[in-house]
């Protein structure tokens, strides 16, 4: 396995459209790195440049101690798992797995041993004599992973490999792939992985670190906990988390060192500790709070925002309340047992953001101005 480095990597297409804007990223040896972002953010383009399937127009790609900019895909030391599996339809599973080794002219005993080893690890021994058309989606994806694994590449590349599977099977395959990565590391053969997805659940549950991308730029690279708890900007804050973070235009003021937030004609004081973290004193901000970090208070409670319920989504263990406050919509996730009866549309409720969980963002730069000493 090897470390992967992207240095000032750029991609410009004909007509001058710039898809990737000089990004820098290091994937450590044995690390599981996830590239995530909305459609069109250039995560797949970046992966294809690493693979050599897209030419780069600036910067450098380094795998281990080699610069691979001008090296053909087959000699870069990578193996790629595609969204559509890309299995050879006329070959049985065992031949699909071993194709790369046979192409390299490896001895037959080595090929047979490697095929058995990979099929055992992925639990597909019973499928070796089947054709791809006889496989389920999950089985075909495991064969595709096995075909990459058997080559023992320096870097594994996954391009949205689970997007064609149903929700239950995606969840199962997430566990299989992450377990495989951990197993290989424990066996002394760590796999360096770059995994592309648009699904933040995959990103948060699979990645050692996550690279959040937007329009060809890297917005933040961090472990899942840091991304969730300390988003660097409002884009990351709104993209990571379900339901997404409430992001509301507000006014920050301070009186006696205690910050206050005003939304429309309502103002609440927030924790004194937040004042020590702020990089600005007063002014317009983007106020951020996750739906899980909002308390629903009894009527008439002081220092709360009050609003009207527009939608109440009962999910069994919790209720998602959509609350209209001065023309803005807050979402609050509340445990079902908090209520004797589930609130209804049109009811007035009071909510209090948990002070230490509040984030404030600069409206112009989108940067988080409330991280401070967190």
UniProtKB/TrEMBL annotation:
| Entry GO MF terms | ABC-type maltose transporter activity; ATP binding; ATP hydrolysis activity
Q: Which SUPFAM superfamilies match?
A: MOP-like (SSF50331), P-loop containing nucleoside triphosphate hydrolases (SSF52540)
- The residues covered by the ABC transporter domain are 4-240
Enumerate the UniProt keywords alphabetically: ATP-binding, Nucleotide-binding, Transport
Keyword Kinase set for record: no
Keyword Heme present in the record's keywords: the answer is no
List where in the cell it is found.
Cell inner membrane
Q: Which Pfam families match?
A: ABC_tran, TOBE_2
Q: Which SMART domains match?
A: AAA
Chief place where the protein resides: membrane
GO cellular component labels: ATP-binding cassette (ABC) transporter complex, substrate-binding subunit-containing; maltose transport complex
Membrane topology value: Peripheral membrane protein
Q: Which domain of life is it from?
A: Bacteria
The family note in this entry says: Belongs to the ABC transporter superfamily.
Write the protein's name: Sugar ABC transporter ATP-binding protein
- Please name the source species: Roseibium aquae
According to the entry, what is the taxonomic lineage of the organism?
Answer: Bacteria, Pseudomonadati, Pseudomonadota, Alphaproteobacteria, Hyphomicrobiales
